[in-house]
Structures are given as structure tokens and as C-alpha cells.
Write a structure and sequence with these properties.
single chain, globular, alpha/beta, about 180 residues, 5 helices, five-stranded mixed β-sheet, Nucleotidyltransferase, domain 5
Length: about 180
């Protein structure tokens, strides 16, 4: 039996939706872009390929109000938990990732990357950024849980509220 567990991350969009599969440690395993209108069947194929998916995280941006109920239903059908996460500025971060994976060549090497737009959609990398944020949040929660013996309940609650405020009100800066 395969004991590997994965996290599926979804960047919902109006026309196209990014999907990424990450390890629990946040390593990119798989990424793709699917048409939003065929998301359910496309995502079911991904689930049949990666049997160890234990959680689906969805960005709370464009079109999540339409797509997230479908994701929740798919999660219920496969006994997989789901959640929403703040995706503010995730596309900008995905554009930076694109240039890390695909460095400019020729004359484009001399143009600052911040002034260039990737020549192809980055929705899959945006889903990866969303998944990384989720794994980062999990690591922070684990760290807090591991230090429980030294921290009072009030202090633990204060840390939890501060983390939630940062995540949902301010968002990560990812500098």
C-alpha cells in the first residue's frame, strides 16, 4: 500500500483553473491547467492518478464561490478534507516562479524580469503558490503544537489569532 500523502491545490478562475499536487513538505509533484467548465472531470482524473491526496486547498479569489462547492463535493465523495486560503498576490509570486523555472534567453536576459510577463498562463504555478502557503501554515501550526508544553493556553490562542489575522487580513508578503 502506498503511504505517501499529497495536498491538491486549486487556483480557481473564470476560464481556466490551475491545479497543483504537492507533497506534505511542499514539494511540487504535478501541475496542470484545466478549463474551468471541465474542472470536475479533469480533477477526478488527477485524483485517480494521485491516490494519496489527503487535503484539497482552494484559493479564495476569482470564481471560488462557484468552484469551491464542487471541490467540497468532490472532497466528500473521496473522503478528502477541503479548505479555502488567502490567495492575494499569488499570481505575482507565480510569475516570479515562472522566470525561475524558465530563465529568459536572448535579448530578454537584459530586460528586468519584473517588467516581463510570462508568455504562457501561470495558473498552475499560482495553484502551487497556494499549496505552499497551506503547507507553510501547517508547519507553523505544528511548531506551535510542539511548543505547547511551554506556552500557556492564552498565549497559544493569541498566537493562533495573530496567525489568522496575518493570513487573512494582511496576506503573506513573500519577499
Amino acid at each position: 500500500m502506498n503511504n505517501i500523502s499529497y495536498i491538491a491545490a486549486v487556483d480557481p478562475g473564470n476560464e481556466k483553473t490551475g491545479v497543483a499536487i504537492l507533497s506534505q513538505a511542499g514539494e511540487l509533484i504535478y501541475r496542470t491547467i484545466v478549463e474551468t467548465k471541465t474542472f470536475n472531470s479533469s480533477f477526478e482524473r488527477v485524483l485517480s492518478t494521485y491516490h494519496g491526496i489527503v487535503h484539497i486547498v482552494c484559493g479564495n479569489g476569482t470564481n471560488h464561490k462557484h468552484l469551491y462547492p464542487s471541490i467540497q463535493q468532490i472532497g466528500r465523495n473521496h473522503k478528502i478534507t477541503t479548505s479555502l486560503i488567502d490567495e492575494s498576490h499569488s499570481t505575482e509570486e507565480a510569475r516570479k516562479l515562472y522566470w525561475q523555472y524558465n530563465p529568459p534567453t536572448g535579448w530578454r536576459r537584459f530586460v528586468p524580469k519584473g517588467m516581463q510577463f510570462p508568455p504562457e498562463p501561470v495558473d498552475d504555478l499560482t495553484a502551487y503558490v497556494i499549496g505552499k502557503r497551506y503547507t507553510k501554515q501547517l508547519k507553523a501550526e505544528t511548531t506551535i503544537e510542539n511548543s505547547n508544553s511551554e506556552v500557556s493556553g492564552e498565549e497559544l490562542e493569541a498566537r493562533r489569532l495573530a496567525a489568522i489575522k496575518k493570513l487573512y487580513n494582511e496576506g503573506d508578503t513573500h519577499e
